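Notebook, bench 3.
Goal today: get a predicted structure for Polysaccharide biosynthesis protein from Lentilactobacillus kisonensis DSM 19906 = JCM 15041 so we can plan the truncation constructs. The sequence was checked against the plasmid map this morning, with no discrepancies at the termini. Length recorded as 549 residues. Pasting the sequence as submitted so the record is complete.
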Amino acid sequence: MVENDQHRAEVSRDQMLSASAWMTAGSILSRFLGAVYIIPWSIWFGNYFLRGNALYGLGYNIYSFFLIAAIAGIPSAIAKQVAHYNALNEYGIGIRLYKRGLVLAVGTGVISAAILYFGAPLIDGGNPNVIPVLHSLAWAILIIPTMSLTRGYFQGYQQMAPSAISQFVEQLVRVIYMLVTAFLIMQVFHGDWVKAVSQSTFAAFVGALAGMVTLAVYYLRRREDFRSLVAHSNNQLHVAPKALYHEIITQAVPFIILGAGITIFMLIDQFTFFKVMRQATDYSNNMLSDLYALFAVNANKLIMITISLASALAITAVPLLSVALTRGDKQEIAKQNSNVLTLFLFVMIPAALGMCAIAGPLNRLFYGQAHQALGANVLTFSSITSIPMGLFVVISAVMQGLSQNKRAVKFFLVGTIVKLIFQWPCIYYLGAFGPLVSTGIGLCVTNWLIIRSLNRQFGFERRLLDIGFRKIAKYSLFMYIATLITVYAGNYLLHFVVDPFGRIPSLIVTMFAVVVGGFIYIYLALKSRIADMVFGPRSELIRSKLRIK
């Protein structure tokens, strides 16, 4: 019995690691593409860059909220419920769930797209330039819910490759379209920067088409496998169509609120920052727009690369926890909870501290020298805030995987109220740093409530988490110091040859610092065996290849 439990735990961890590897690779590559395009984009926009980037962010935040409403949490709900029925060997119900979900996805997509398009003048925040941006983004909402639903269906089968690859294809096509249109409008035809931004946001629709085609190819290739699983199912459960719709909707609603969590916080910033700053300062609208771009768009675009690591973990955790809950295996749930948190700490803490260390050259590499010092400081602070943001993404997904939906929503609402309480004084006295502070406080409250609830109901493997956290924090600190020294040394040496604050020197310093810091952290993690707690037997293979004893 003990051997079976150990084997099951190993299989679950292997499944989570394999799934996380696919989702992390797809998410990181997509986020990287979504950030690196900004280098040529900013050059081509010239003096309009910060204004254009701010407009892009203003439109995208509203679009993100409508998109989450359109998706309606259905993909994650489908992934969870498909995994649940697959664990019962009732594959036929999973396919019926997917088909019913498609009807809902198409319906919510059409309704949300129409509201965004025709309601744009009512939600432009007093900035008429936002209207054409929202019009261009409405088209993407027609397709993305169906695409996301199909990804959720594959995830319910623990098949993460289709999701990861389609995500990468979607982003690649989107970025290509953005860059081509930006170059043509701004450099070739010397056109209007607002139109260039509108085409950059319309790229979301073009990318979504490419992602949907990729998923369709995968589905057609595996259709016979799905049919075979249905043919060999128990086929003993019969769920009426109305019950299927009810099941999808009741599971999906909490996913809407929690999935929109970070977006809701960003919208609070968007609709309060300008008003409070006009009370606190006499800055011009262009100056306020530049400041907003620094924390809400520029820094956010980079920290979302690290937060995407957390998102990858969150997506893989939901179906695995759902299976453990279906089996009633409380010990397995505790192990899964501990594995998820340990893997999160192992990746997120060094990633966040590493970005803090290279904030200066990284900010110059992506955004040039406009507001150089302030931009680097905002990015440093944002990197720290990314830890509670990433943790929220992971543990809220854990709560949903364990059917603790209502409780998770309640905890998020508490954190939102805390955010609102601190928002005005933080912005008034701290300026561009204020929204980051209030977000950090609000999410820390939510995270504490969720972790306390998980511990009371299901428990954690305390020893695993305690040892893991202490060692990961210590090695991440070593890595941070080494990376910071490398940055300063690189800038000092380069200034004898070139201006160290240019884009190319900043790229050299960033890459060298990342290599040094990454090697130190990986070496210490492997040497101390802390990596074994996360990757299991694979760590020994890596140690042997690197000749680490």
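Residues 285-327 form the longest helix (43 residues). Residues 16-255 form one domain.
Flagging this for group meeting.
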